[in-house]
Amino acid sequence: MRTEQGIAIVDRDEDGVDRAFRADVLAGLRQQQKAVPARWFYDEVGSQLFEQITGLEEYYPTRAETEILQARGTEFADLIGPDRAVVEFGSGSSVKTPLLLETIEPAAYVPLDISGDFLRESAAALGEKFPGLPVYPVEADFMRRVTLPDDVAPLKKLGFFPGSTIGNMVPRTAVDLLRSMRATLGADDGEAPLLLIGMDLVKDASTLEAAYDDSQGVTAAFNLNLVHRINRELDGTIPVDAFAHVARWNDDFARIEMHLEAKRDIAFEVSGRRFFMRKGETIHTENSHKFTRRSANILLLAGGWTPLERWLDKGERFSLILARATEHRDAP
Fold this sequence. Notes:
Blueprint: E1 2-3, E2 7-8, H1 19-30, E3 34-35, H2 44-53, H3 61-71, H4 73-80, E4 84-89, H5 97-104, E5 108-113, H6 116-129, E6 134-135, E7 138-139, E8 156-161, H7 171-184, E9 194-200, H8 205-211, H9 218-233, E10 243-250, E11 255-262, E12 266-270, E13 273-277, E14 282-289, H10 293-302, E15 305-312, E16 318-325
Parallel strand pairs: 1-6, 2-7, 3-14, 4-5, 4-8, 5-7, 8-9
Antiparallel strand pairs: 9-16, 10-11, 11-14, 12-13, 15-16
Helix pairs in contact: 2-9, 4-5
């Protein structure tokens, strides 16, 4: 594999701090219900902790999705076809990616990730497995439209978004992301791109809560690492030991919510701003929405994608959906 020079398009200030990270944290801490978007979990430490989470007994999604990728390779190859550039949104460690690349004969691979060091490490590791395949790692916030490398632009595209990350977003933001993916993949520039996306399914609350509050405390460390990151990158003085990890099922919104709950009254600073939290107050750090077939299809259609095929694991816990970019229409 030839790993082409990566493209870094993260907007940083003179101190090297991601401007969007600072803005999101400060805005979130000013809200009545304090909240920080889940995408900021993934600095290098957070990315490593998440990889540990995927191997936990309680965390079923990775095993279920891997099962689908291993069992349905022939069907993927028939429906997707060869010679597409695979653009992976939030590439992580690319553990699942080889299972896809082995079956579809891609023309190139473009991993997009906001954690640059982790991105380049995973791209290099993938390079050893697929010699001869051009790889173009792009450090970018894929929540917005990303300009792909020039060599990739004329190729047919397959977007790959595994892991049910789409469930971390409230519906409005999820639809915005699906539309920006459509733009990134050049939906209006030629042949309609395809999208292979993972979505976790609604199931009993006890299984879901255990998956996000494991017995070894890895998910708790993952959640608390966000505080460490704020302290390190934004000159924060937040007492990490003042918070407890909380995961709970919200049936009204069909989602698991993760929070950091203050165990005592605390005052702290972030980027020179003062904040105060009372005991029991929380910082809402993640949603993980779960889907039915109908809710998944509605979300995709709202984002400009028409579902083509849907696969489940044997336990019917997780789904992978293949969709095609929908042409703009002025009528139903």
